[in-house]
Amino acid sequence: MKRSGFIIIISALFAASTGLALLLPRIKHGTTANIYRGGECIYSVDLSLVSESYTVDFDDGKSHVNTVEIAPGRIRVLEANCPDGVCVNTGWTDSPAKPIICLPAKLIIRISGEAPDGFDAVTGAAR
Amino acid sequence: MNTKRLTFLAVLTAAALGIFIIEAQIPPLAPIPGIKLGLANVITLWALYALGARDAGLVLAARILLGALFAGSATALLYSAAGGALCFGLQLLLKRAAGEKNIWALGVLGAVAHNAGQLVCAAAVTGSAAVFAYAPVLTASACVTGLFTGLIANALYTKLKDTRIMQGL
Fold it and tell me: Which end is more exposed in chain B, N or C (fewer Cβ atoms within 10 Å of the end residue's Cβ)?
């Protein structure tokens, strides 16, 4: 293949990914934060109903603890004892396009339109 | 494989490992894991052209294993291996199509493939597709960092081609 072919392919790849990277975080449908561990939802809260910030600790039973701060309209990992601190550095999220991921603890915080099936009752108790 | 070639591969592995470990000490450029220069790939890419697939693969495998031993963890090894395998596989596949003049392009596509491999690995570990939300930003950054490492590998290959460094290997 000629050089121009590679330049076109790579430019297109770069343009498409940059465009998506800039546009996706603007998507803001949904105010429910669902917290998953290993693919299973363990906590769910509607951030639009939160009036005062509070924190919840998530312990994976293998010495990983993530302290999650739940605030009006947004959520973040306030503190974590994992080695890389990626989840803390990700900061606040309020968009489905910006999940917070802690790989060592296998913890994921996703914003979505609704809580997973059969989860509202549990949340009510937790809140 | 003669002794000189074996020694040369060992030196390459040491160089790649050194680059890898030094780079691991640099604080992350962004809060997203996976955004880094990937300078060690310069060695692999150069070796792929200068020494062939088998030896480049050996250097890569040794660097990934030793890199995890010195600077990472068992989990890091998993991501490193998934990314490295996909990156090298794609470069191997496209080596002929790219030719000696487009080594830089393999740097870019390899970096993108590397991140793709790591994302698939992360999705498997977390049991969730949520990690793919970071695919666009990782791909965009891989284009930039991959171009940088690809151009270095390209220049390295061009400059070293007519020297005596490869004599007797």
Answer: N
Q: State how many domains chain B has.
A: 1
Q: Do A89 and B28 touch (CB under 8 A)?
A: yes
pLDDT at A51: 92
**Summary mean pLDDT of chain A:** 86
Residue B79: which domain range?
A: 3-160
Helix ranges restricted to H, B3-127 = 3-25, 41-50, 53-71, 74-98, 103-126
Tokens at residue A36, please?
Answer: 């998953």
- Asked if residue B25 has pLDDT above 70, the reply is yes
Phi and psi, residue A54, nearest 5°: -150, 165
**Cα–Cα–Cα angle for A5, A7, A12, rounded to 5 degrees:** 100
**Residue A120: pLDDT band with limits 50, 70, 90:** low
Is the Cβ pair B135, A10 closer than 8 Å?
A: no
Q: Which residues of B touch A97 (CB under 8 A)?
A: 133
Task: Find the CATH number of the domain harbouring B15.
Answer: 1.10.1760.20
Give a yes or no: residue B72 inside a domain: yes
Residue of A nearest to B100 (CA): A3
C-alpha distance from residue A36 to each of A61, A62, A77, B52, B130 (Å)? 15, 16, 13, 44, 10
Structural domain contains residue B166:
no
What is the spatial distance between Cα B105 and Cα B3, in angstroms, rounded to a whole number? 33
Q: Using CB atoms within 10 A of its CB, is residue A113 exposed (0-12), middle (13-18) or buried (19+)?
A: exposed
Q: What is the ipTM of this complex?
A: 0.85
Query: What is the CA A88 to chain-centroid distance, rounded?
Result: 11
The answer to whether A17 and B139 are in contact (CB under 8 A) is: yes
